[in-house]
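Researcher: I've been going back and forth with a colleague about how Glycogen debranching protein might be arranged in three dimensions. Neither of us has a model we trust, so I'd like an independent prediction. The organism is Klebsiella variicola, in case that matters for your notes. Sequence below.
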Amino acid sequence: MHGPWDPAQGHRFNPAKLLLDPCAYRVEGDLPDDERLHGGMWEPDHRDSAAIAPKSQVVDLHYDWRGDKPPRTRGGKR
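Model: Here is an independent structure prediction for Glycogen debranching protein. You can compare it with whatever you and your colleague have in mind.
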C-alpha cells in the first residue's frame, strides 16, 4: 500500500508488502516465520512478501451446491 513512511506518526505504508483482506471469509496458505513479512521498524523493508504471504480467497456465499458431486478420480487423488 502506498503512503508515507513516518513511524513516529504511526505511518508504515510499504508497497512491497502484500496485505490480507481483514474481511476475507477464507485465507489460503500458512504464515511462515520469515523476515520478509515484516514491513520494517524504522526503515522500510523493500523485499517483496507476495511469494510467501497468505492470500485472501474469494468465496461465493450464494453458490448453489445442490447437485454438486465430488470428482470421480482413481485412487482417491484430487
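Researcher: What would you highlight for our discussion?
Model: I'd start with this: The chain has no helices and four strands. After that, consider the following. The chain has a mean pLDDT of 88.
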